[in-house]
Every structure is written in structure tokens, then in C-alpha cells.
Specification:
By secondary structure, this protein is mainly α. The protein is 53% helix and 11% strand.
């Protein structure tokens, strides 16, 4: 046997009422989210500004260290006289042509130059200077 099914037909909910109640809630939620976003943006700006300041401090300290290291690097001229009477002049702490200028008076005093041997540091920049002469 089959029984008759009953079907309850309800009137449709008024969609205008439902949406009219939902709209203010959504606007309130949007306003709260916008305020939260504004707060986060302010925090991010502060954090980024602090980050930039730290980067500048680090760069300034690195520059100061580099300057001090360069000023502390001693410039020496080493003159060696062999038992045969041959002299060797070696410079340390000079960059490029400055070693030639520093030893010019010594070469003139010692006499004729035999040969000159330049190291790879002769062509280096002032951060790693060194030139050798023989």
C-alpha cells in the first residue's frame, strides 16, 4: 500500500527582507575590516621605516670600518741586500703606481735597476694594495 504523501507548501521568504537585514551587517563588517587594514598599514610603515634606518646604520658602520682598515693598513718598503750586493725592493700596502713613486728616490740612490717584477696586487684597487719590485 501506498500512502499519499503530504506536501507542505510554505510561502517563499521575502528576499527583500532578508537582504535588507543583511546589508547593514555587511557594511558594518566592511567598516571593521577597513579599520583593521588601516591599522596594519600604519604598523607596516613603521616597521619598514625602522628597517630602512637599520640598513642605513649598517651601511654607515661598514663604511667606517672600511675607512679605518684602510688607514690602519701600514705601508712598508722592504729593502734586501744579498751577499752578492744585489738589492731587492719590495713594497707592501701601496696600490698601483704609488709603489713606484714611493721607491723612486731609493732606486735613484741605489743605482741601475735590473729588473722589475709586478705582482697581481699591483693592478688591484686600493682595498687590497700590494706591489713587489725586484
Amino acid at each position: 500500500m501506498t500512502t499519499v504523501r503530504r506536501r507542505v507548501i510554505r510561502p517563499p521568504a521575502s528576499s527583500a527582507n532578508s537582504e535588507s537585514r543583511r546589508l547593514p551587517a555587511l557594511r558594518t563588517k566592511l567598516e571593521r575590516e577597513q579599520q583593521a587594514l588601516t591599522r596594519w598599514m600604519t604598523r607596516l610603515k613603521r616597521a619598514f621605516h625602522s628597517f630602512e634606518k637599520f640598513q642605513q646604520r649598517v651601511a654607515r658602520l661598514e663604511k667606517q670600518i672600511r675607512t679605518l682598515e684602510e688607514s690602519l693598513m701600514s705601508k712598508t718598503i722592504e729593502v734586501t741586500v744579498s751577499p752578492k750586493g744585489e738589492t731587492t725592493i719590495q713594497t707592501k700596502g701601496f696600490a698601483g703606481e704609488s709603489c713606484r713613486e714611493a721607491t723612486r728616490s731609493l732606486e735613484a740612490t741605489l743605482g741601475v735597476r735590473g729588473r722589475e717584477q709586478l705582482t697581481s696586487e699591483f693592478h688591484a684597487t686600493a682595498t687590497a694594495p700590494q706591489a713587489a719590485r725586484q
